[in-house]
Design brief:
Layout lengths: L6 H21 L7 H8 L5 H25 L5 H24 L2 H20 L18 H18 L4 H12 L3 H24 L6 H23 L3 H26 L8
Length: 268
């Protein structure tokens, strides 16, 4: 059931969307993981399943918009991107159907565990070999691509996330494409997975179109400012921001675990 939000909550929805877009534009990834907790705890939306369905649509639109400049720059490998998106979309539908059937508090608890994993991955040193930027054209493996897409799509649908942090290494692993091409190509899958999840949730009345629109509007504005600021920051500054953001994600995750552990009969 959709909530009847106040004007203040509508404004906070725009602010939350702007914060997500700003973070994505500034550090290039991970920001969408905060879309759910912001809508839940800052805006105060009461239904976890509607929150997941709504933010999935917002993340989807944001990904498709960010895909445009990458496509124009030739950073999208369309064949691999389409295969990954189609297989993953089927898996995302299955995953989102499972997610809808899980108790909201249990789903949020598991979501928080995923947030901790993402925070750890964000601060882990990235070892890039000289050949990784050029890629390995002969490495393409269709079965690896399909398996990777199925796993990532299921997780994306279940938690209502874009899954870019998993899609990028999945594409590199299965195709050997350069990192820049994997980042550009991943956006097509992020958008498709999010859209699939959103449609599935919307079919059950678990998507607030007004809040989604406010989130998207805020995300577009925030993304522009974040991208502009990113161009003026050095590599060391971006690395520091990445660590700070990962710490924030971890703190929010711990709070979500505390708030939702009662769903598993754990009480402190």
């Amino acid at each position: 059931m959709l909530a009847d939000l106040t004007l203040t909550q509508h404004i906070l929805s725009v602010v939350s969307g702007a914060a997500v877009g700003f973070t994505l534009g500034l550090i290039g990834g991970g920001g969408s993981i905060l879309a759910v907790p912001l809508l839940l705890y800052l805006v105060g939306y009461p239904n976890p399943h509607v929150v997941i369905g709504t933010t999935a649509l917002a993340v989807s639109i944001n990904a498709y918009l960010n895909l445009i400049p990458h496509a124009r720059a030739g950073n999208v490998r369309w064949k691999e991107a389409v295969i990954f998106a189609i297989v993953g979309a089927v898996a995302a539908f299955i995953g989102s159907s499972l997610g809808k059937a899980v108790d909201g508090k249990k789903l949020l608890f598991l979501f928080a565990i995923l947030m901790l994993v993402i925070a750890a991955l964000m601060v882990r040193p990235k070892k890039v070999k000289p050949g990784d930027m050029e890629g390995h054209p002969g490495q393409f493996s269709l079965w690896k691509l399909i398996v990777s897409a199925a796993i990532v799509g299921t997780l994306s649908g279940f938690f209502g996330i874009g899954g870019g942090f998993l899609i990028v290494p999945g594409l590199v692993f299965a195709t050997g494409m350069p990192m820049l091409a994997a980042v550009g190509s991943s956006l097509f899958s992020v958008g498709t997975f999010g859209l699939t999840t959103a449609i599935n949730y919307a079919s059950s009345g678990l998507l607030d179109w007004t809040v989604a629109g406010l989130y998207i509007a805020g995300g577009i504005a925030g993304g522009v400012f974040g991208a502009r600021l990113a161009t003026h920051l050095g590599k060391s500054s971006k690395g520091t921001l990445n660590i700070i953001f990962a710490a924030l994600v971890a703190v929010v995750a711990v709070y979500m675990i505390y708030k939702n552990m009662s769903a598993f009969g754990i009480h402190l």
